[in-house]
Write a structure and sequence with these properties.
Elements (H helix, E strand, L loop, with lengths): L6 H4 L3 H4 L3 H19 L2 H9 L5 H10 L5 H12 L2 E10 L2 E9 L5 E7 L5 E4 L1
Antiparallel strand pairs: 1-2, 2-3, 3-4
Length: 127
């Protein structure tokens, strides 16, 4: 029975079995590198549209100093105008000053984004 089995066919050197292993490893490394590089700019792109965002502590400090209108006052205005409720809200720095960007769910079930001048509370745009 041993004559039927050739041990050289069963046990091979990996470099003989897969001569292109170096190429495969290079491709895997390239894919991982591209994935890592392409994931990094996402927060930067998000900031570019609205400017630099404030942390929660920075936004609270700005409100306490009186340099921005409290969100609860803006939410009241939006509730009177659209009904519904706030989904998300962030404070951003822009060239002309601070703005709130608020995601709002109306009574009609429409999700809108409202940009508000944080200093005056005036609605600048809604979409």
């Amino acid at each position: 029975m041993m004559d039927d089995c050739n041990p050289r066919l069963i046990f091979t050197n990996h470099s003989e079995a897969i001569p292109h292993i170096g190429l495969v490893m290079k491709k895997i490394l390239a894919i991982l590198l591209i994935a890592a590089v392409s994931a990094a700019p996402l927060p930067v792109m998000a900031q570019g549209q609205y400017g630099n965002s404030f942390s929660a502590d920075e936004a609270r400090d700005a409100r306490d100093k009186g340099s921005v209108v409290p969100l609860r006052d803006i939410f009241r205005r939006l509730k009177d105008r659209y009904g519904g409720y706030q989904v998300d809200a962030n404070l951003y720095n822009r060239d002309r000053g601070q703005v709130y960007v608020i995601d709002w769910m109306t009574d009609k079930g429409e999700r809108i984004q409202v940009t508000v001048d944080a200093k005056t509370g005036r609605i600048l745009s809604s979409s």
